[in-house]
Design a protein that fits this description.
Elements (H helix, E strand, L loop, with lengths): L1 H15 L3 H20 L10 H13 L4 H20 L26 H9 L6 H16 L3 H5 L6 E2 L4 E5 L5 E5 L2 H19 L18 H14 L8 H14 L4 H8 L4 H4 L1 H17 L5
Antiparallel strand pairs: 1-2, 2-3
Helix pairs in contact: 1-2, 2-4, 3-4, 6-8, 6-10, 10-13
Length: about 300
């Protein structure tokens, strides 16, 4: 099983174009599953049957994993077994009938317009790092980029004349996203005033760089956002994806078409985008309760 698990990420990367984050998550999940099989003294992949998989998923539930995490574990295992069947390592796939755990709809964390404005104003654009941070925040909010898409964004990905960028999302799929006047203006300032100072003579195609002239990490971006959220006095848990959630929610609240938002977010399935319609409905209920004479 260990050898097959080592082979599977390569298959996913080459055949499916899976992102590094997906490959790392799947590898962790499959190692956990392999450990469980060893404890149960199940010798090989072809000796695993649906009842074994259901029992494994039950242990994950008892450990407190969410339905989303359990589903990801199941998706990794099912993907592995499809690969094993295709490559001839097992004579049949016995796990096809194990269905996904029910995932309860969870509304994403968003900031309202006032909170977002306060957060965007916090970086000090009179110094190189602050100007970079302000440009990153404005770009995240203007485009709804994923964290991985932002930190790997290159200078050439930005079309300065048209005011849009090319984002490379999950499965290496590219999409064109408008930037907007406010974000493109602060981005130009960053390119002219801040980025050369941060680079200190170094050369890189990466758009956003740290004080050593290298690219930013996801962890660094997370810490930066959290720092400014605390400065802004925002009590909610603010993380990089909060910009993406707020981008989609504010567009829909403003009357944007759901399919247009789907394209800008890079969602393969519109049902993924539809979660934001639940957010806007919650917002409408809140407004009704607060302002209608018989709402409360």
């Amino acid at each position: 099983m260990d050898d097959r698990i080592d082979e599977f990420p390569n298959f996913m990367a080459v055949e499916k174009g899976s992102s590094l984050n997906t490959l790392e998550a799947y590898s962790r999940d499959l190692r956990r599953f392999a450990g469980y099989l060893k404890e149960e003294k199940i010798p090989s992949p072809e000796d695993v049957f649906p009842e074994h998989l259901v029992a494994f998923l039950g242990t994950l539930k008892r450990e407190g994993l969410s339905a989303t995490s359990i589903n990801r574990n199941l998706a990794a295992i099912r993907g592995l077994y499809r690969y094993l069947l295709r490559s001839g390592h097992i004579p049949e796939n016995t796990l096809t009938k194990v269905s996904l755990a029910k995932t309860w709809m969870r509304l994403p964390d968003t900031l309202n317009l006032q909170e977002m404005e306060e957060l965007l104003q916090k970086p000090d654009d009179t110094n190189p790092s602050g100007l970079r941070d302000k440009a990153m925040f404005e770009l995240l909010y203007a485009t709804g980029l994923r964290v991985s898409e932002l930190v790997t964004l290159t200078v050439n990905a930005v079309n300065w004349q048209v005011g849009c960028l090319t984002a490379t999302g999950k499965g290496r799929k590219e999409r064109i996203v408008p930037i907007g006047k406010t974000a493109i203006a602060i981005l130009r300032r960053y390119m002219e005033e801040s980025r050369p100072l941060l680079l200190k003579g170094k050369k890189t195609d990466v758009l956003f760089v740290n004080r050593r002239g290298g690219g930013l990490t996801r962890q660094a971006l997370w810490k930066t956002i959290r720092k400014y959220a605390l400065l802004a006095g925002i009590q909610k848990k603010v993380h990089p994806h909060t910009f993406r959630h707020s981008f989609a929610t504010h567009l829909l609240e403003g009357g944007a078409d759901l399919r247009a938002v789907q394209v800008m977010l890079g969602h393969a399935d519109i049902s993924t985008t539809q979660v934001y319609t639940h957010v806007t409905r919650e917002r409408l209920r809140e407004i009704h309760r607060k302002y209608h004479p018989r709402g409360s």
